[in-house]
Amino acid sequence: MKLYVPLDSAAVALGADRIAQAIRDEAAARGVAVEIIRNGSRGMVWLEPLVEVVTDAGRIGFGPMTPADVPGLFGDLASHPRALGLVEDLPWMKGQTRLTFARVGVIDPLSLDDYRAHGGLAGLERARGMSKAEIVAEVTESGLRGRGGAGFPTGIKWKTVSEAPGAQKYIVCNADEGDSATFADRMLMEGDPFCLIEGMAIAGLACGASKGYVYLRSEYPVAIRIMREAVRIARAAGILGPEFDMEIRVGAGAYVCGEETSLLNSLEGKRGIVRAKPPLPALQGFLGRPTVVNNVISLASVPVIMARGAAFYKDFGLGRSRGTIPLQIAGNVRFGGLYECAFGLTLGQIVNEIGGGTASGRPVKAVQVGGPLGAWFPPALFDTPFGYEEFGAQDGLIGHAGLTVADDTVDMLQMARFAMEFCAIESCGKCTPCRIGSTRGVETIDRLARGDASALPILTDLCNTMKFGSLCALGGFTPYPVLSALTHFPDDFARAKEAAE
Amino acid sequence: MLDSHAQTDRIAEILQAHQGLEGPLLPILHAIQESFGYIPEAAVPQIAKALMLSKAEVHGVISFYHDFRNKPSGRHVLKLCRAEACQTVGADAVADRIRRALGIDWHETTPDGRVTLEPVFCLGLCACGPAAMVDGRLVGRVDEGVLAEVAK
Ligand SMILES: Cc1cc2nc3c(=O)[nH]c(=O)nc-3n(C[C@H](O)[C@H](O)[C@H](O)COP(=O)(O)O)c2cc1C
Ligand code: SF4
Ligand code: FES
Ligand code: FES
User: Fold this and answer.
1) Minimal Cβ distance to A406: which of B25, B68, B88
2) Does A220 touch chain B (CB under 8 A)?
3) Closest Cα partner for B8 from B54, B62, B50?
4) Beta-bridge partner residues of A32
């Protein structure tokens, strides 16, 4: 009997390790031989732990599993109370266009044979037969933009590094993923680590860089373990070596270290203070040398682009947002998880149709898109299509494509206060508007909460100062959640006043 | 706890093991904290000397990062996610009840040295919050029941 039990952090947090053990125990008691493969997650977090049993018809899913449901796996599968049918046929799976996440949840993450059998390494092999300029051109042509938040065209960044003079260049993968409501990087690294390694190796070829680093946040112990193991396996198999090798480095709990220049300082062993640009990291990055800094998903999307061609990838999407985006649907939502699809779905489709509305069953009040620096959207803006420019036009951003759904019990004044508090806690301290302004922001919102309406213009002024006087987007974008809360949910700020009166 | 000689030797070993790395300070600090549970004050001059940095620079790095502690934690470390997605499913209320039950606030350790409570901003479990980490183990949809795991 062959089964899949995810090793993914979310599955484990919901008991997957206990389920795997219960399966082993039950099999031993029955004298049945079982092979348990620890896979990544299919992304249906509400069904985790999701166990899959391999049958002649395909992989049948069971979830969410409890230890009490385990003995039933050894009986009539069709009548099992947790039976979901063929996983491939579930609507959540069928609706997606899985390009970057094609293998996540499907393969054994640490089996190179599995990786190859599912199309892995085809991109790297093709890249090996191309010149640096040809690889850069292919990535540029695909329309791929940075998935870390800023949306800068990946090919253009690579071109700068590729053409920069320098004997030693670097590929640095930003796996700091600090935004609330995001877990795509984590799921990719846990479920298909070789895909990231392949993407970095291709970047190395394109840019003439022989060394790579993954800066991986310490909050992700499973991803750290899987990535380290995968690097060791890839090195033993000769995929990594003198031509291009890489190391996994662990962060230390600072949100701002996701900002690329702060990350580079941290990687060098310094305080994670943001650097002024210019110089661009592409020209003077890690240790002052030409460096590509790319998000996990940007790099992990390169293998499929190289394997299937720029035109194939570019064909998906909307406007200037080409290809697919792994949406991470989180918070108070019925069907939470990862859903990869072409850009262009409306926010309402994502929240109500794919996400199924709130988990509490109450009305959706607001959705924060793009993490702690992203704007809160009211249902009135649910017709906004998911794309970089489209969200920008509504004073929002898509960031790393995380969505936090909140029901009508959420107090938007408190969420605005939290945004300021978070900025104060995580500020690197370099600029006054961010460091001091955020603390003033908390105090000002507290005044509003006490019913002091005269604090309102002070708050908007403060937001303007932070927007225009901050060096990086931590201070510069914290006004997004604050002002969007104020603009779209004025009642929550007025209600505080009424309560005081 | 190790005596000071053993401590110096262990730190020297760690410094030795990290030679040749580009930007070795964070990996060194992680290794020291893993060995001792915190970064002992006496490690600072030793690291500074080995990496040719000033003591102030090493201090500055240690104090910048939330992960590094300069004194031992409680026997258990309970980290609760305070970020937005977990807030939308009641993380604040759970944290309030846990703080009341333990009689401590964020960053504090119970007087009996049993548990240290730390805030964390996102564990990547945002579709199954409120999220927690108990002594390195991940927990989704956490509630006060988690206190049983840090009871001894
Ligand atoms: C405060 C702050 C935090 C950030 N955190 C991350 C992060 O966790 N991961 C990430 O890829 N980019 C993050 N970024 C964006 C990076 O600075 C940078 O734009 C990105 O790594 C570039 O890679 P890409 O072009 O592939 O997106 C952050 C930016 C700021 C200002
Ligand atoms: S805006 Fe804040 S985090 Fe960014 S550089 Fe300035 S002080 Fe540092
Ligand atoms: S790590 Fe940024 S201020 Fe603490
Ligand atoms: S917001 Fe709590 S785990 Fe991500």
Assistant:
1) B88
2) yes
3) B50
4) none
At residue B105, the pLDDT reads 98
Residues 39-68 in B contacting A (C-alpha not used; CB under 8 Å): 51, 60-61, 64-68
Q: Name the strands in the sheet holding A291-295, side by side, starting at the edge strand that comes first in the sequence.
A: A245-250, A211-216, A170-175, A291-295
pLDDT profile of chain B (152 residues), mean per 10: 84 97 98 97 97 97 96 97 98 98 97 97 98 97 96 89
Render pLDDT for A120-171 as a digit per residue (tens, 0 to 9): 999 999 999 999 999 999 999 999 999 999 999 999 999 999 999 999 999 9
Q: B73 C-alpha to center of ligand 3: Å?
A: 19
DSSP A317: E
Rounded CA gap, A194 and A234, in Å? 8
Q: State residue A495's pLDDT score.
A: 66
Q: How far apart are CA A176 and CA B130, in angstroms?
A: 20
Query: Which residues lie below 8 Å from residue A282, measured CB to CB, with a gap of 6+?
Result: A157, A160, A161, A164, A290, A291, A292
Half-sphere exposure of B99 (CA within 13 A, CB side): 14
B101 CB-near residues (< 8 Å, 6+ apart): B144, B147
Answer whether A152 contacts ligand 1 (Cβ < 6 A): yes
What is the model's pLDDT at position B152? 87
The pLDDT tens digits for A374-429 are 999 999 999 999 999 999 999 999 999 999 999 999 999 999 999 999 999 999 99
Q: Is the pLDDT of residue A499 over 80?
A: no
What's at B118, amino acid-wise? E
Residue A308 CB contacts under 8 Å (≥ 6 apart), including other chains: none
**Distances, alpha carbon A75 to alpha carbons A5, A37, A49, in Å:** 18, 20, 19
> What pLDDT, on a 0 to 100 scale, did the predictor assign at position B116?
98
Rounded to 10°, the helix A221-236/A193-207 angle is: 60
CB B68 within 8 A of CB B31: no
Q: Taking the CB of residue A344, how many other CB atoms lie within 10 A of it? A: 16
For chain B, say whether A479 makes contact (Cβ under 8 Å): no
Is there a contact between B136 and A404 if contact means CB atoms under 8 Å apart?
no
